[in-house]
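In the previous lecture we treated proteins in isolation. Real proteins rarely work alone, and many bind small molecules. This record shows how such a complex is specified: first the sequence, then the SMILES for flavin-adenine dinucleotide.
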Amino acid sequence: MKASMTPSSHEPGLLDCLVIGGGPAGLTAALYLARYKRSVAVFDAGRSRAEWIPSSHNYPGCPSGISGHELLALLRTQASFYGISLINVHVDDLSRAGELFEARFEGGTARTRSVLLATGIVTRLSFVAGKGPERLIMYPATKGYPAGLRYAEAPFLVGEIKYKEGPPGTFIYVKATIIKNIDFATAGYLAANPAFPHQTTADQFFSPDQFDAYRLLGYESALRMIESLKLTTTITGQTSILEAYNESGSLSQLS
Ligand SMILES: Cc1cc2nc3c(=O)[nH]c(=O)nc-3n(C[C@H](O)[C@H](O)[C@H](O)COP(=O)(O)OP(=O)(O)OC[C@H]3O[C@@H](n4cnc5c(N)ncnc54)[C@H](O)[C@@H]3O)c2cc1C
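The predicted 3D structure, ligand included, written as tokens:
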């Protein structure tokens, strides 16, 4: 978004570029702008999705992986080397002011020649209690063998997608997670490879038993999803998949 290449105003504090959003995209853009001697500030509300990344293995230059938190901290440190102002604030309004832009936030206004929007995306999730993403997370079983094994309540969840226009859609999300009563071969692979099924994706050369473990876990997870949601009838029947999901009993066999 650009107001003008030749701004008429030379007021003090006027920015060449205001970057709105301080996730990886905004911080990287700000770094490049600052290296080209532009005066830049990053206004960030502090809700980067990168904070959710436990360990990213596809970030260039980080062969052993890097957490989103660490990556953001490094990018902020790098930004500070170039004198970029990082301001923790939510921009509430952005408008044109002649050849410039005005960004309003609680307690102030910033004027800038150009604006770079790097606001990311926001997922709005709302689930019936006990039917949200928490059921996909593996928790330690309180008893059973071997000690310390972790299981998830279920390998899938169902949600509704609301569109601005048109009827809602349904999505079924199936996740690779350890569920109770997996087959013997998969359990064996897990015992020898505790990182399963969240092993690094950097190594794509699967051994045959590794390939089979993922295949069998995927097969079993899909089967449980189909049975629990009664997909053979709900997909075309009167009861919607979402209703079947919300009415289904707990799959949990945790002890
Ligand atoms: C669980 C999880 C795991 C992931 N794993 C990986 C991975 O391994 N590898 C990978 O490449 N990607 C991964 N991603 C995706 C990655 O996190 C995003 O692609 C990345 O964070 C997008 O960067 P961004 O800068 O565009 O947006 P974000 O990181 O979301 O940053 C946007 C920023 O803008 C701010 N903002 C928004 N509106 C305003 C406003 N009005 N005023 C001020 N600030 C505002 C927000 O608060 C936020 O801080 C993962 C995502 C999740 C959720």
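Summary for your notes: The longest helix spans residues 208-228. The chain has six helices and ten strands.
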